[in-house]
């Protein structure tokens, strides 16, 4: 199992997973995790963000949205237009992202 994979020497899956698990444990993120569907996100200035979820609102200084493989990211209009014009707009889930 390679620690880094070609052609860009990105971390291999096992190394990346081990790194993530260590960070999750060190920051005690499991107890901070909220499993709800985000339906809206609004900035609150210096106070952080308000996330509207399927079960109500949550305010936080920082927000991490985790999209599962079955979810599709919402592309902003400018990104969709630029991509349609052949611009260099890609997403990490694109099948050709590695090229």
Shape: flat
The count of β-strands is: 5
By helix and strand content, what is the structural category?
A: alpha+beta
What Rg, in angstroms, do the CA atoms define?
Answer: 17 Å
The low-confidence runs, each spanning 5 or more residues with pLDDT under 50, are: none
Strand/helix succession: EEHEEEH
Distance between the termini: 21 Å
Strand residue content: 15-25%
Question: Secondary-structure map with pairings?
Answer:
Blueprint: E1 4-5, E2 10-11, H1 13-26, E3 38-43, E4 49-53, E5 56-60, H2 77-84
Antiparallel strand pairs: 1-2, 3-4, 4-5
Structural description of this entry:
By secondary structure, this protein is α+β, with helices and mostly antiparallel strands. Helices cover 22% and strands 20% of the residues. It folds into three domains: 1-33; 34-64, no CATH class; 67-99, no CATH class. It contains two helices and five strands. A hairpin with a 4-residue loop joins strand 1 and strand 2 (10-11). The longest helix has 14 residues, at 13-26. The mean pLDDT is 82.
Notable features of this structure?
about 20% strand; two-stranded antiparallel sheet; about 100 residues; 2 helices
């Amino acid at each position: 199992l390679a620690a880094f994979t070609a052609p860009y020497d990105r971390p291999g899956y096992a190394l990346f997973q081990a790194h993530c698990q260590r960070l999750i444990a060190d920051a005690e993120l499991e107890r901070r995790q909220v499993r709800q569907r985000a339906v809206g996100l609004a900035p609150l200035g210096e106070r952080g963000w308000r996330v509207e979820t399927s079960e109500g609102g949550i305010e936080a200084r920082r927000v991490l949205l985790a999209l599962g493989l079955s979810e599709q990211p919402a592309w902003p209009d400018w990104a969709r237009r630029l991509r349609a014009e052949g611009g260099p707009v890609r997403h990490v889930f694109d099948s050709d992202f590695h090229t």
